[in-house]
Amino acid sequence: MDSVNQHQIERKLRHQMLSILVLWAVGGLIICAFLGTIGDESNNPVLAWLGSRIDLLYIMFLFIGFFGVFSFYWKKPWTYLDQVVNATEIIYEKSAKVITLPELLHEVESRMNQIKLSLMTSEKSIAEAEEKKKELVLYLAHDIRTPLTTVIGYLSLLSEAPDMPSEQRKKYIKIALSKSERLDVLINELFDLTRYNSKAVPLHKTAMDLSCLLSQIADEFYPTLSANENTVTVSAEEKLIISADTELLARMFGNLLKNAASYSDRGSEFVISAKKENDDALIAFQNTGETIAPENLQTMFDKFSRLDQSRTSETGGTGLGLSIAKEIVELHGGTISAQSKDRTITVLVRLPIKS
Prior knowledge:
It contains ten helices and seven strands.
């Protein structure tokens, strides 16, 4: 309870107490005046005695009333304190039970319910994250086991058949090497993701021309895109200079382009654009493909989320590229998001020009 709320509650209690005291005093005056009038006009000795002692009766009336009111309001804060303490136990209950306090503690009640809601939401998020971690472990175990089993199988064949024909031996060695390289990529990307997430990666920032970097990335991916008859167009403002780690940004842009190439329509065009917007550089990667559901758009960059649940170790990449891209963007103090409508997917990267 902050000092502002405390002062408000004190003021309300003080006003209540003063109002009751005033009403008690005025009520006592009216009653005593009525008894005094009756005593003066009555021949009854008891009423006459009351009329003669009306001042003393009024003082006693005030004393009893004031003592009762002060005693009640003295205990009131302790009662409120007990109710607040009991309410704190409800905060940590794993139930939808709402905290209810007296009207005077409405602000405290509202805040405690907000805290309870935040805790419940946080616990739910933690549970969901744990579930996603379990899914990721199973997914990585599958992706690692598949090429590893292949490597072991072909090496066993090579070991058991020393007189194997040369051509067949070369074929088996090539397959084993290919699967070993895939294992290396998977393990390295998982390691990088953990490293970027821990913010342990030092940034070597230099002034760089964003247009030149994007054109260079597009040229490097030309063979990959040509295999699917895709083309890429870069449209960037000239002299769009930002302060960033060139190597990490190149990897981030490469991951975005690689992901787009994996899920885009055959023969479609990729459009990469960059412009200055306020104090940021806004980069957009746009391609055509299957429209992504809104719920997947919210999680496609998460560390423990897979956009395509049907992806296996034999199709596409490791599935960690977008997560790594997000970590690199956030290391630079930027943001990344995605939009998808009418078979058009757009990934938006916002990076501070000066950071």
